[in-house]
Amino acid sequence: MQYNENNKESILEYAKQLEGTTLREILPNEIIETMKKDEQGNKGRLGQKIERYFFGYECNSDTQPDFPCGLELKVTPLKVNKNGSISPKERLVCNIINYHNIINEKWETSSFLNKNKEMLIIKYIDPMNKDISQLDYEIVDVNIHNILEEDSEQFEKDWNIIVNKIREGRAHELSESDTLYLGACTKGATAATSLRTQPNSEILAKQRAFSFKTKYMKELLNRK
């Protein structure tokens, strides 16, 4: 079964094959063998493997959505708590914030909305045991989520809080505690190598990315 990259329903129907299964159960044997070799050198993220081996495209840092129809693919982990309940394991990281470009943007036509407005979100259970192959991670939910359908007002408010701080030359003061749903999380291996220049200030600021905060991911899970 193939999918039409220009049709959201076709992509969702194709992706739904993953729900309630694992990559080992759904992928052809020859692809599984290739994945095993990849894991020996670089385990990487499950999302990268789903992009490459299930959807058939290479992961990238393009400013445009992953599919030409405007759909962005996100793969995010859940964890099983001691009491048996399920909760998000982490925030969902979106695109890197370009401090110099974003001060000239408006919410309605922002680069953030262009890339992340509508997402195909694939959720899986992280077994928290790195000896378990990602081929055997259980994928439990596949759905399209549009942030403008229910949460537009809060996302716009959060986006403006972040962007206004950058416009004021205070990107170095950004904190995830500033906002409710949309965060500006640090992004980079080390603080020393991920510092960036910012407009209206000579102070270097940590590289940051927009993210769906864990609070929001939990709320999405509860709505289900």
Question: What order do the helices and strands come in, and which of them pair?
Answer:
Layout lengths: L7 H8 L7 H4 L2 H13 L4 H10 L16 E9 L5 E3 L3 E5 L2 H4 L8 H6 L1 E8 L12 E9 H4 L1 H16 L14 E5 L8 E4 L2 E6 L1 E5 L1 H10 L1
Parallel strand pairs: 1-4
Antiparallel strand pairs: 1-2, 3-9, 4-5, 6-9, 7-8
Report on the structure:
The chain is α+β, with helices and mostly antiparallel strands and 224 residues long. It has one domain (8-223): ECO RV Endonuclease, Chain A. Helix content is 33%, strand content 24%. The chain contains 9 helices and 9 strands. A 4-stranded mixed beta sheet has the order 2-1-4-5. Strands 3-9-6 form a 3-stranded antiparallel beta sheet. Strands 7-8 form a two-stranded antiparallel sheet. Strand 7 (195-198) and strand 8 form a beta hairpin. The two termini are 28 Å apart.
